[in-house]
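Just wondering, does anyone understand these tokens?
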Amino acid sequence: MNQIIIHDLKNLNDLDSNSYILFMYDSFGNIANIDNIDKFENSLDITKIETLLKNKINQYKFKTLQNRCYLPIATSILINHLNYKILYVPIMWLKQDISNTKNIYFSILSVLKHIYKINYISKNNIETKLFIHNLNNLDTTTVLKDFHELTNMYETLDNKEDLFINNGYYDSGEQPPIYQNNEFRELTNY
């Protein structure tokens, strides 16, 4: 398994051709609402990226009970913008307190599997860098350790041949019991 190194996204000049940018927010791809995203506004067209994300989300079969397209928690998607490879993964359905969930753990694990899948299919054995926006508060040690202990990973991946999506796991029962989550709550079969 090729090595994946995780860094904090501070400067886009640190990226190379084997680098990915990771943004995490809600299931609708509303990245313009991410804290401190405006610091990249000079280098990245955040509005354009959000539009690309929402268009990509709309290509998949996931629908809420109100028939809105969304991306399930911990399901990562890949888009290309300018010369950047951008991964996006929802860590919550809608903006809410997820501190009592394992959403971030499962989301990062899904992203690592996604990068593995991309590298496996493209036969890339070079070290890959993952730059995470707002890494400051995340402890990635456990998820990296768990990722490196996985074996026969490719055989268990959903959508094996689609480089642009990787389905993840999360516990819907763990999500906060707030009214806004009723739009998603009953969805158990994806």
Remarks:
- The beta strands are 4-8, 19-26, 76-81, 84-92, 128-132, 165-166.
- The longest helix spans residues 103-121.
- The first strand starts at residue 4 and ends at 8.
